[in-house]
Amino acid sequence: MHILVTAGPTREALDPVRFLSNRSSGKMGFAIAAAAVGRGHTVTLVSGPVALTPPDGVSYVPVESAQDMFVAVKAQVPDCDVLIMAAAVADWRPTQVSEQKLKKSSMDGMLSLERTPDILASVQALKGSRVYVGFAAETQSVEAEARRKLNDKGLDLIVANDVSRDDAGFGVDTNVATLIARNGEAESLPLMSKADLAEAILDRIEALRRS
Ligand code: CTP
Fold this sequence. Notes:
- The chain is α/β, with parallel strands linked by helices.
- The chain has one domain: CoaB-like (Rossmann fold), CATH 3.40.50.
- The chain has helices at residues 27-38, 66-76, 104-107, 119-122, 142-152, 194-210; strands spanning 2-7, 12-15, 18-20, 42-47, 59-62, 82-85, 92-94, 113-115, 131-138, 157-162, 174-175, 177-181, 186-188, 192-193.
- Bound molecules: cytidine-5'-triphosphate.
- The site of cytidine-5'-triphosphate has 16 residues, from helix 4 and strand 9.
- Cytidine-5'-triphosphate binds next to helix 4 and strand 9.
């Protein structure tokens, strides 16, 4: 299969030296890309800025902003069988990007934000028989929020994780996830390494492709 994976945060520029972003390290997406290459799949990895080395054998597309990631994903989706959106895409960006470094006195109470494109929602029309997988990183009502996103974004599978735990989510090497399928079935996985969770996610995707 050709698997398209996104990873990491995005950066939304405010001026030449400042940006809005989040705590994503990229570890989960990179673990999925490495595991998929290990299984012999063709892998394209689109990632925001991270301090990780791309796994050998992946086609690597580095991006910065949500808009860049949106353009890269839209260009790659037609060639892939599976899309796994592990990236923590920034939800907002500054309404205006200043060409010059902003002076602190000009910014008091002034930060105006707009929504970034919802990448998964924007590639709905391209889905066809492709398997789409999303992530829901939540701090409360984890499973309910994940089910809402599964439906709203037209996904086949969503990986829900509680990022308020110290041993799950952003930055750490372990994760605790519940895999929820389109038919509503949920599988709660124990604490495991992101490498092992990547294998569990790929097992589910391969089963979905066979069904
Ligand atoms: N996602 C996306 N485009 C965005 C934001 C998120 O494609 N602009 C994807 C993420 O990669 C993830 C899924 O959508 O796979 C859920 O992301 P999340 O940030 O949890 O959801 P939001 O739609 O931003 O919902 P909310 O802000 O209500 O939590």
